[in-house]
Write a structure and sequence with these properties.
Blueprint: H1 4-15, H2 23-45, H3 50-62, H4 66-74, H5 85-94, H6 111-121, H7 133-156, H8 159-163, H9 178-185, H10 198-207, H11 215-224, H12 226-231, H13 244-260
Helix pairs in contact: 1-3, 2-3, 2-7, 5-6, 6-7, 7-11, 9-10, 10-13
Length: about 260
């Protein structure tokens, strides 16, 4: 079994090369550790043994390794304005040899290949249908864990912080566009290129819930409450947060998520 403590220490040594006083870097460290823990929990929920659950944790630990060099080199986390952080991270690890800085004892058979695949694909809109069942499972666990914690990130940040330099590309509008709502009814994630206004972004973030594969992932998302906050149309005092049309679209999204998750 891979030594998680040694791996975590290696990760900390790597990230300490960057500006740890930066809230941007600190947020990615926090996100990484949360995703690693979520990967392990989801893996256990899938019935995986100790070795495979530890390996899933390791996938979470390294999934965003490219973010730190991305921030230093390009001064942004916006992939569209820099590089695809998943591809960048996988290249750092497996083409430039960064993986040699981390312990690899106890990896399952084909563990290096599965890790590279899972990291490269963790941010893609869909997974290819050519993956073998075992690789597909690990990819899905990582993607679920990442999305579950992204709900937290979105819940704690403003639109400007989430969208970064892209914020000015999105105008204010009364409600999500038809193409975005078609994704809601189709129970699928929203492609970035069809989002035109700020409420499109709100709906698209909620649509990530459709992609959660495992019951454990859905349970965690429900327990944390960040998804509920994202989809809320009133504040704690009952005051409406959005226009009448937008509130109706949020209600539709909530209903469709319950339907997708087979909830009453």
């Amino acid at each position: 079994m891979t030594d998680k403590q040694q791996a975590a220490e290696a990760f900390r040594r790597y990230t300490d090369q960057y500006d740890s006083s930066s809230s941007r870097i600190a947020s990615k460290v926090s996100h990484t550790l949360r995703v690693a823990a979520l990967c392990e929990r989801i893996a256990r929920g899938c019935g995986m043994n100790e070795e495979d659950a530890a390996y899933a944790w390791y996938l979470g630990l390294l999934h965003d390794i490219g973010r730190f060099e991305q921030a230093q080199k390009y001064n942004t986390f916006v992939d569209d304005a820099s590089v695809d952080h998943a591809e960048f991270g996988a290249d750092l690890l497996f083409k430039e040899g960064l993986i040699r800085s981390f312990p690899r004892d106890g990896f399952p058979e084909n563990g290096m290949e599965m890790m590279e695949t899972a990291i490269r694909l963790h941010n893609k809109l869909t997974l290819p249908d050519t993956l073998d069942d075992r690789t597909l499972t690990f990819c899905r666990i990582l993607r679920d864990a990442d999305k579950v914690d992204i709900f937290r990130v979105i819940g704690e940040l403003s639109f400007e912080e989430i969208m970064g330099s892209r914020k000015d590309l999105f105008r204010d509008a009364d409600g999500a566009c038809e193409a975005v709502m078609a994704c809601v009814y189709g129970h699928r994630c929203v492609p970035r290129n069809i989002r035109k206004n700020r409420f499109d972004c709100r709906i698209s973030h909620g649509c990530m819930a459709f992609e959660l594969v495992y019951e454990t992932s859905r349970k965690i998302a429900g327990e944390q409450g960040y998804l509920d906050r994202l989809l809320a149309d009133t504040d704690e005092q009952g005051n409406r947060l959005w226009s009448e049309r937008e509130c109706e679209q949020l209600r539709i999204l909530r209903d469709e998520i319950r339907r997708a998750w087979n909830l009453k």
